[in-house]
Amino acid sequence: MKINVVGVSGSGKSTLARKLADALNAPYLEMDRLFWKPNWQEPTNEEFFPKLEQALKQDSWVLDGNFSRTNSIKWSEVDLVIWVDLPFCQTLFQAISRALRRVISQIELWPGTGNRESWGKLISKQSIVWWTIRHYQSNRDKYCRLMADPKYRHIRFIRLNSHKEAEALITQLVSIQQG
């Protein structure tokens, strides 16, 4: 099965994608890991798209990430798109909590990049928290449009509004896979 988990930053898409990949014994692919270069440099499409295409050549995967400009690549053979659409306050709380944990731990976000959260970045206009605030509603509008777009009628979309729904979906998908 090929699954793309999407949602605004802080929604819990990475956590759900990892849990799904483990439960389904499928490779976990993180778009941010494929995307970000050292020192927070963004790749060109010519650099990024082939990396994504190569990663998606597997028979099954759980892909964590949005990057709408890649829809034609990642959704050409996807079976299921799961949209994690939690309430704004919950999403914002999760984004802030995660950012603070990353600042304090100084964990390298994607191996080999040296990219780490910092106090300066956290309070800047480039902050993932500010990104979440600015893009929460437009992200919701975008996924509502995409779900209704006839171009994607071959895709099964599931919209999750709570962690409880996410856990139930994992159980359901494992049950289906086991046959």
Q: How would you describe what is shown here?
A:
With 179 residues, the chain is of the alpha/beta class. It contains eight helices and five strands, in the order βαβααβαβαααβα. A five-stranded parallel β-sheet has the order 2-3-1-4-5. The radius of gyration is 16 Å and the shape is globular.
What's a quick, concise take on this entry?
The chain is of the alpha/beta class.
Please describe the topology of this protein.
Layout: E1 2-6, H1 13-24, E2 28-30, H2 31-35, H3 45-55, E3 61-64, H4 71-74, E4 80-84, H5 88-105, H6 119-122, H7 128-148, E5 156-160, H8 163-178
Parallel strand pairs: 1-3, 1-4, 2-3, 4-5
Throw out a few tags for this protein.
179 residues; globular; Rossmann fold; alpha/beta; single chain; five-stranded parallel β-sheet
Average of per-residue pLDDT values: 94
CATH superfamily: P-loop containing nucleotide triphosphate hydrolases
- Summed up, the domain count is 1
Poorly predicted residue ranges: none
Number of helices: 8
The rounded Rg comes to 16 Å
Class from helix and strand fractions: alpha/beta
Order of helices and strands: EHEHHEHEHHHEH
- How many β-strand stretches? 5
Please report which band the strand proportion falls in: under 5%, 5-15%, 15-25%, 25-35%, 35-45% or over 45%: 5-15%
Main beta-sheet strand count, sense and barrel state:
5 strands, parallel
Q: What is the spatial order of strands in the main beta sheet?
A: 2-3-1-4-5
State the distance separating the first and last CA atoms.
13 Å
What is the molecular shape? globular
Classify the helix fraction into a percent range.
40-55%
Please identify the top-level CATH class. Answer: Alpha Beta
What's the architecture in CATH terms?
Answer: 3-Layer(aba) Sandwich
The CATH topology is given as Rossmann fold
